[in-house]
Design brief:
The chain has 481 residues and is α+β, with helices and mostly antiparallel strands. It has 13 helices and 11 strands. The protein is elongated, with a radius of gyration of 49 Å.
Length: 481
């Protein structure tokens, strides 16, 4: 994958993530505003319903006390201001039913007509439906105007009930005023954190009267109301962003795999071609340049050819072993083995192939463990070969034993492996890049093979962090057969 297409993908994903976040933030802010307005409307409705219920209940109680002796309307008559307001409102109501009133007679009036009918000038012969409506309106107005004071104890009970129905539970202050003059307060007026307020719009309140409800900030209430939508928005945004980031990770991983694959193909092609070319050259020399049948020369060329064919066979075996590991068809055949003797033999073989110094040490003269001798020997040999190829001049192999495990450390005094590369080197075909130049032969399958084999032994192969050395550590349980 080229760099430019990859950059375009990264920019596209970044823009999509940013756009998703912006859209969700805008939508949540807008949704919060709607929820906040809804909460205010709910509080307003609760206040208005409480006022309506309070005065309706008061009207029911008061109507029972009205009798034919004009008791309550004598009180109205003593207040000229109230009488004028009542006459004005009722006059408009009566005019709407004028046609019915003009055709009515006293004969239709029930015996003992009420004083409320006489006070508001309602003709006794008014049809029952119109009569009831007008009487209800008149009673409502009279009750509202006569009772200027409010029983806050009773009213607060109704208000608290209405608020509770709507899921509200907060402290509040009620202010009752008329014509700009505060008549009364109810609640803890020392509360300083009551920034919001609503005024009752109830038709029961007399003209010029204001009933204001103050209450705390409703940010938390608005958030609670929209919690589900906010949660869904967050989950949607998180899933989109996670999917895009995962896609980016997959793309980068595929890019790395492609690079590793190309590197492996290049290396394996070179490694396969070299022994084949040498073998062909040796055979050609025997055929063309050995006409005198020189036995010594023939044996020399045959030996060269055999060495290269043996090398070619080892390369193919490594590739096949790796393929078998991927299919989980590799069978581990464990047998009791002296690890001290095995490791000493491996070190001696490796020492013959390198001028570097390889030291071996053990805390015991003999340590028996149940292992697959063939594969375990390959594991240790691969790690030592890795130290010979890429490590320092001194290689130390140490064997130790605890009550349950056996540990083998292979350390060299070369440059330590960078932290970001410590896990990658165990990936199949992976080789630490050196500015696209690999000056040491290899396929990137040795450490992958070694870790897989150790895991099949219920052990592990890992790098021990160290500032001065590169240390590989092999651990496994030695008692398990």
């Amino acid at each position: 994958m080229e760099r430019k297409p990859q950059n375009r993908i990264i920019y596209t994903i970044a823009a999509t993530v940013l756009l998703t976040i912006c859209i969700q933030v805008y939508w949540n802010i807008k949704n919060y505003g709607t929820n906040k307005l809804q909460v205010l409307n709910d509080v307003q409705t609760a206040l208005d319903n409480s006022v309506d219920f309070y005065y309706t209940d008061l009207a029911k109680t008061t109507v029972k006390t009205i009798d034919t002796q004009n008791e309550i309307f004598n009180e109205v008559g003593n207040n000229s201001e109230v009488q004028v307001m009542v006459d004005s409102i009722i006059k408009s109501t009566i005019n709407e039913a004028k046609d019915s009133i003009q055709n009515s007679t006293d004969a239709d009036s029930p015996p003992g007509s009420h004083s409320i009918t006489r006070t508001f000038g309602i003709t006794p012969g008014l049809p029952p439906e119109d009569r009831n409506n007008v009487e209800a309106l008149a009673t409502k107005i009279v009750i509202s105007l006569i009772n200027g004071e409010i029983d806050f104890k009773k009213f607060s009970t109704d208000l608290t009930t209405e608020l509770t129905k709507r899921g509200f539970d907060f402290k509040y202050v009620i202010t009752h005023s008329r014509n700009g003059k505060v008549l009364a307060h109810y609640g803890n007026t020392s509360e300083k954190k009551l920034p919001l307020s609503v005024q009752s719009q109830s038709a029961y309140l007399p003209e010029g009267t204001i009933l204001k409800l103050q209450f705390p900030d409703i940010t938390s209430l608005a958030l609670q109301k929209g919690f589900l939508s906010i949660l869904l928005s967050f989950l949607l945004s998180a899933s989109i962003i996670a999917s895009l980031l995962y896609l980016l990770r997959v793309i980068n991983r595929q890019k790395q795999v492609a690079e590793i694959k190309n590197d492996f193909m290049s290396n394996i092609s070179h490694e396969l071609k070299t022994p084949i070319t040498i073998s062909l050259s040796a055979n050609e020399a025997i055929l063309r340049f050995n006409k005198d049948a020189d036995t010594t020369r023939t044996e020399k060329f045959i030996d060269i050819s055999n060495q290269q064919l043996h090398k070619l066979n080892l390369i193919v075996e490594k590739i096949l072993e790796t393929a078998v590991l991927d299919t989980d068809q590799l069978t581990i055949k464990k047998e009791k083995t002296d690890l001290v003797k095995l490791l000493r033999d491996i070190v001696e073989k490796q020492q013959m192939n390198t001028p570097k110094k390889i030291d071996f040490s053990s805390t015991y003269n003999a340590i028996d463990a149940h292992i697959d001798r063939f594969h375990f020997e390959n594991v240790v040999a691969n790690v030592i070969e890795n130290a010979i190829k890429y490590g320092g001049d001194i290689i130390e192999v140490a064997l130790s034993q605890t009550s349950y495990t056996v540990s083998i450390t292979i350390a060299d005094n070369g440059t330590p492996i960078e932290k970001g590369q410590r896990e990658k080197i165990f990936d199949k075909f992976y080789r630490i890049p050196k500015k696209n130049i690999h000056d040491t032969k290899g396929f990137g399958i040795g450490l992958y093979y070694a870790r897989e084999i150790m895991q099949k032994h219920l052990g592990n192969l890992e790098i021990v962090p160290d500032l001065n050395k590169t240390i590989f550590k092999i651990t496994m349980p030695w008692l398990i057969k």
